[in-house]
């Protein structure tokens, strides 16, 4: 039988190589020594780069050099395409080969996130392309031996398993070669690589989880980049890290309902302790694997397997027999066994399996802390390639095999073990509704989002503003029979209450007068407002520039609680938070504003009634000028003893029909025009309010 002709992607010939060097250390040694495989072509970023690698690694002179993935896909002399480039470049380099129906071997992870991994697997299925993925732990001799002992009942029924693993890298630094490990969007990092290979290892011995929970955290958001080739010299300081470095998973297995925990962390272990400490408890004893490295899919000669019998009270070290390919460099040994499983038509991991594993191991969302739940939905598919669905002989070998052609004609059923589409580092969004915008409701709005990542929290109240009982009860002398120092929020205490049982206006002033900075409106809501008030004219009016202008004026000179407006250019869009407005007959939306010391605020001292403030709440024009202005009342300590503020505010829709949105030029309207348009098109709302310790904000 002729040798399988390999097109290898990512064997770099550069002297200053950046990456893990996995192609030359793990794939090349086997491919150069095997009589059943031959490297027929190299694909790199350029033909010149591929030619340099051919010369560097002394490949045959007739090895083809390619710089374009399409050229490799078009080559009829390639039987197997092997992709060993950076994770986020997997799909783009193998896509043409998958579309050509070639067999494709891609290293783990399939790509940078679950969405692309699914697209990769779907493309392979659509073109009937055979696939292999670089998950090789199940072929490691120590893992096979461990699997054999478990299935032979050496420790009886498995009760629990705990795996503690150090990822080995320094918790405060990262190597320049893998600087991208700090960028979650690349997809090659501790979260995807380490978790994925560890899950595969545990699954291959104990079977799948039937349910699990996982949590993660970024304990070091900034790390230094070092050059180990230059003695560990720091070449970049305080580089932002978006990849979790603390990971905890726990769940139960399908086969024996055993409780399993996996705890992975960045950083070096305590001297004298193994980087990997995996213990499996059974009814009749324990199995323990210790190793100076986390990855059993790679392995080291120092890896130790021990068996403890409760019957004899003895601990014995279990020897693992030497096997074929042990003479290869360590990184290449289990990769060689994976290649051989493919060649012989035995079972091997495919893209479908990788996609399934990726549901818990490939990061998809950026978060410092997150949690994730997974559950089994429906019956386990009998043909899915996991340990609890395959046969193992007494030597630990996988005996349920199918030929390569059979695997193509009758692919394993898609696994029905599905999680809720939330990878391990993605925060599951929780929706919370708080009924009542009184002190308790507002306190929940302040505290809960800080404690629950990804929280979607909405506060509902039948009233037009916050305050709860203090909004409804404003009659002179109203007070509460709860002591003032007890009726307050711990995050914003007050030690200056005027009375032991303070009156309502004093309590409401403390917690409700200045609860929100308001900016109106969110673009979609602004358009909806025009449609809502002017349904017949809206289609034509919305073709031109339109604005929402609030006209705000004092009823008498204002000293207490003046109105401040922010410089719109000092407020980044990232600090604007869309907020639902729940009306009796519709749902609107506005923007709330996050606190930011970078905002620039302005106000008019002692503003008289004849001095009107025009507040731009929305402008459809996007030519760089201010589109919205946050505004809020504030406490001026110098005027606390003055009379409560009284003001009136009118919201006006302002239209510029001559200024079509597609027109590059725009003439700003005069304020006279604003006034006339407000009269022509009507007022959204008018409200006059004599403030009793609270600030009027018209949400209209």
Automatic annotation (TrEMBL):
<protein>
    <recommendedName>
        <fullName>Gfo/Idh/MocA-like oxidoreductase N-terminal domain-containing protein</fullName>
    </recommendedName>
</protein>
<dbReference type="InterPro" id="IPR044053">
    <property type="entry name" value="AsaB-like"/>
</dbReference>
<dbReference type="GO" id="GO:0000166">
    <property type="term" value="F:nucleotide binding"/>
</dbReference>
<dbReference type="InterPro" id="IPR036188">
    <property type="entry name" value="FAD/NAD-bd_sf"/>
</dbReference>
<dbReference type="Pfam" id="PF01408">
    <property type="entry name" value="GFO_IDH_MocA"/>
</dbReference>
<dbReference type="Pfam" id="PF13450">
    <property type="entry name" value="NAD_binding_8"/>
</dbReference>
<dbReference type="InterPro" id="IPR000683">
    <property type="entry name" value="Gfo/Idh/MocA-like_OxRdtase_N"/>
</dbReference>
<comment type="similarity">
    <text>Belongs to the asaB hydroxylase/desaturase family.</text>
</comment>
<dbReference type="InterPro" id="IPR055080">
    <property type="entry name" value="Gal80p-like_C"/>
</dbReference>
<dbReference type="GO" id="GO:0016491">
    <property type="term" value="F:oxidoreductase activity"/>
</dbReference>
<feature type="domain" description="Gfo/Idh/MocA-like oxidoreductase N-terminal">
    <location>
        <begin position="5"/>
        <end position="134"/>
    </location>
</feature>
<dbReference type="Pfam" id="PF22685">
    <property type="entry name" value="Gal80p_C-like"/>
</dbReference>
<feature type="domain" description="Gal80p-like C-terminal">
    <location>
        <begin position="141"/>
        <end position="290"/>
    </location>
</feature>
<dbReference type="InterPro" id="IPR036291">
    <property type="entry name" value="NAD(P)-bd_dom_sf"/>
</dbReference>
């Amino acid at each position: 039988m002729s040798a399988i002709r390999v097109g290898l992607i990512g064997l770099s010939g550069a002297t200053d190589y950046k990456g893990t060097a996995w192609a030359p250390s793990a794939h090349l040694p086997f491919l150069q020594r095997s009589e059943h495989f031959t490297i027929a072509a190299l694909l790199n970023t350029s033909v010149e780069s591929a030619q340099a690698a051919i010369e560097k690694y002394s490949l045959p002179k007739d090895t083809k050099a390619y710089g374009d993935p399409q050229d490799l896909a078009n080559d009829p002399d390639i039987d197997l395409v092997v992709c060993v480039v950076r994770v986020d470049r997997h799909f783009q380099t193998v896509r043409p080969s998958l579309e050509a129906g070639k067999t494709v071997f891609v290293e783990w992870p399939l790509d940078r996130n679950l969405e692309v991994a699914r697209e990769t697997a779907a493309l392979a299925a659509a073109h009937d392309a055979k696939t292999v993925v670089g998950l090789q732990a199940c072929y490691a001799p120590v893992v096979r031996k461990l699997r054999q002992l478990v299935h032979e009942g050496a420790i009886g029924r498995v009760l629990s398993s705990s795996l503690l693993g150090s990822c080995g890298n320094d918790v405060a630094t990262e190597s320049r070669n893998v600087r991208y490990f700090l960028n979650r969007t690349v997809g090659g990092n501790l979260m995807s690589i380490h978790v994925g290979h560890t899950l595969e290892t545990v699954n291959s011995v104990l079977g799948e989880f039937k349910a699990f929970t996982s949590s993660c955290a970024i304990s070091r958001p900034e790390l230094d980049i070092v050059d180990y080739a230059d003695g560990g010299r720091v070449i970049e300081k305080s580089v932002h890290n978006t990849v979790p470095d603390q990971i905890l998973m726990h769940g139960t297995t399908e086969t024996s309902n055993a409780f399993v925990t996996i705890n992975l962390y960045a950083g070096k272990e305590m001297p004298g302790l193994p980087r990997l400490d995996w213990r499996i408890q059974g009814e009749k004893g324990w199995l323990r694997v210790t190793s100076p490295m986390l990855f059993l899919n790679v392995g080291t000669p120092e890896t130790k397997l021990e068996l403890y019998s409760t019957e004899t009270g003895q601990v014995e070290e279990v020897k693992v027999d030497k096997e074929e390919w042990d003479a290869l460099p360590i990184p290449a040994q289990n990769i060689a066994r994976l290649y051989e499983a493919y060649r012989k038509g035995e079972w091997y991991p495919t893209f479908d399996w990788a996609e399934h594993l990726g549901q818990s191991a490939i990061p998809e969302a950026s978060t410092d802390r997150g949690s994730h739940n997974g559950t089994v939905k429906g019956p386990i598919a009998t043909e899915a390639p996991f340990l609890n669905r395959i046969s193992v002989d007494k030597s630990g070998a996988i005996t349920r095999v199918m030929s390569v052609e059979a695997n193509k004609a009758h692919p394993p059923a898609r696994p029905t073990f599905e999680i809720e589409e939330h990878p391990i580092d993605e925060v599951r969004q929780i929706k919370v509704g708080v009924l009542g915008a009184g002190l308790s409701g507002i306190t929940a709005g302040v505290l809960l989002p800080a404690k629950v990542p990804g929280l979607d929290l909405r506060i509902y109240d039948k009233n037009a503003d916050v305050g709860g009982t203090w909004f409804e009860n404003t009659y002179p002398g109203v007070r509460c029979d709860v002591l003032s120092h007890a009726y307050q929020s711990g995050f914003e205490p007050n030690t200056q209450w005027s009375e032991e049982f303070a009156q309502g206006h004093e309590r409401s002033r403390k917690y409700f007068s200045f609860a929100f900075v308001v900016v109106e409106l969110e673009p979609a809501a602004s358009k909806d407002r025009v449609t809502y008030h002017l349904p017949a004219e809206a289609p034509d009016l919305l073709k031109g520039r339109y604005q929402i202008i609030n006209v705000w004026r004092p009823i008498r000179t204002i000293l207490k609680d003046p109105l401040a407006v922010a410089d719109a250019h000092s407020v980044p869009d990232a600090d604007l938070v869309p907020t639902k407005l729940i009306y009796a007959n519709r749902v609107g939306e506005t923007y709330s504003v996050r606190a930011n010391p970078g905002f620039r605020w302005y106000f008019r001292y002692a503003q008289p009634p004849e001095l009107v403030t025009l507040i731009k709440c929305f402008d459809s024009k996007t030519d760089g000028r201010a589109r919205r202005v946050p505004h809020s009342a504030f406490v001026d300590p110098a005027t606390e003893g003055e009379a409560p503020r009284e003001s009136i505010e009118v919201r006006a829709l302002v239209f510029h029909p001559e200024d079509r949105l597609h027109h590059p030029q725009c003439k700003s309207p005069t304020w006279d025009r604003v006034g006339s348009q407000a009269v022509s098109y009507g007022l959204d709302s008018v409200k006059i309010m004599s403030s009793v310790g609270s600030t009027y904000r018209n949400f209209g």
